[in-house]
Amino acid sequence: MITRKVAPALAAGCSVIVKPPSETPFSPIALGFLALEAGLPPNCVHIIPTNDSQASTELATNPKVKKLSFIESTGVGNLLAKAARNTMKSVSMEICGNAPFTVFEDGDIDQAVEAAMVPMDLPGYFYEPTIISEATMEMQVAHDKTFGPLATIFPICTEAESVLLANES
Question: I need a surface site. Which of 5, 104, 105, 115 has the fewest CB within 10 A?
Answer without folding.
Answer: 105
